[in-house]
Amino acid sequence: MKESFVVEGLGGKRTLVGEIPVRGSKNAVLPAMASSIIFNAPLRLTNVPDIEDVYRMSELLEHLGAKTEKVKKREYVINGHDIKDSVMDEVLSKKMRASIILSGPLLARFKKVTFPHPGGCVIGARPIDLFLSGFEKMGATVDEKKESFVISAPKGLRGANIFFAIPSVTASETFIMAGVLAKGTTFLKNVALEPEITALAEFLVSCGAKIKGIGTPVLEITGTNGKLLTPKIYKTIPDRLETGSFLILAALAGKDVTITHCHPEHIEALTDLLISSGVSIEIAKSSIRVKHTEKSKLKAFNIKTHEYPGFPTDVQAPTVVYLTQVKGESFVFETIFEGRLQFTQDLVKMGADIKLWDAHRATIQGPTPLKGREVEGPDIRAGLALLVAAIIAKGTSTINSIYYIDRGYERIEERFSALGVDIKRVSGE
């Protein structure tokens, strides 16, 4: 059964009022769930977002032999100690890129792991060379089959000096967990600096891991030589990418909107640009208030996506929607994924003036009114961006492929409705 969102647009009016809370971070909770493999007792996680990717990670772990239980609202207990199998399910693994994070703790604990070529959103090539070469440096052998990889380390993983050619979030998280159980000391260099990585590393330290340099590009990990850790309670940090998406919506359609339960310092790259663009923003310790700003006063700006603390690629899509509504020409340079600007074709159908020069660069001329259309959400972030476009457009829009939105955003239609958005979830063939 396919589901869609049907949205009656505001036609450029600023009517949204109220508070919208940010849920736990998708990109933080998934590696935390994977870490259940390296614990000697059940792991309790709180502030877990109610999203599809959490369900899929639970299924992956259960297929391996773990027991996962949702004990109360947004709280899970995962017993990864009972896992006996290190062969990851092909169908489940290909549903999301984050599945590869399981390879590190599985290999470190069981000395062998089998996983398929990873899947996820269609946003361009996402090579796993960083993972394969890193495992080899830690003493493992890589056997590439037609549809999968088999990684073996019969004597266990050993500490190594690993330099990441690019500061990959998933690779950093994977090798942090692998290094924790390895024999000897592992040095990870050019580590990604995203808050989700810091949250994972600090949590593992609280559970007995020895990790130095947290929050820097170089981590020194002293392994336990296979000894499992004793878990503490993991509290998921707020989702900074959700915070950014809500900021864009409030900037475009808000009369007075407050985003609560967030960490404003995690999204400064966006708030700084929005303030310079003319948006009225008040930042508190754990909330951001966006007040009505005359559309005519909003100015264009350029963005270049970059690893944290630079402008996040996962906020690029909704920001493009914002730039279609402000005065002037903007230049967008997507440096992370070559397929991430493809969604602009749907914005052009809605009336946006966007020129896509190549897979990485686009210019946007604004402001241009948007009109309701039927569009497809090609990935998690573009799906949410098109939903924002539908909200500010004139007329009715239908957003298809909303499974992607559900993967990263908890019950988004209910939360947007609370602000005054006319949105319905409908089922079709």
**Overall morphology:** elongated
Number of helices: 14
Number of domains: 2
N→C terminal distance:
6 Å
Q: Largest sheet, if any?
A: 4 strands, mixed
Strands of the widest sheet, in order across it, are: 21-22-1-23
Proportion of strand residues: 25-35%
Kindly report the average pLDDT value: 94
CATH topology name of the largest domain, in short, is UDP-n-acetylglucosamine1-carboxyvinyl-transferase, Chain
- CATH homologous superfamily designation of the largest domain: Enolpyruvate transferase domain
CATH architecture of the largest domain: Alpha-beta prism
Give the C-alpha Rg.
22 Å
* CATH class descriptor of the largest domain: Alpha Beta
| Class of secondary structure makeup | alpha+beta
Q: Which residue ranges are poorly predicted, with pLDDT under 50 across at least 5 consecutive positions?
A: 120-126
Query: Helix share of residues?
Result: 25-40%
Task: Give the tally of β-strands.
Answer: 23
Task: List the keywords.
UDP-n-acetylglucosamine1-carboxyvinyl-transferase, Chain, 26% strand, 2 domains, 429 residues, single chain, 14 helices, elongated, four-stranded mixed β-sheet, alpha+beta
Task: Give a written overview of the molecule.
Helix content is 31%, strand content 26%. The protein has 14 helices and 23 strands. The strands form six sheets. It has a four-stranded mixed β-sheet. It has a four-stranded mixed β-sheet with strand order 2-14-16-15, covered by helices on one side. The protein has a four-stranded mixed β-sheet with strand order 4-5-3-13, covered by helices on one side. Helix 8 runs parallel beside helix 12. Residues 120-126 have low confidence and may be disordered.
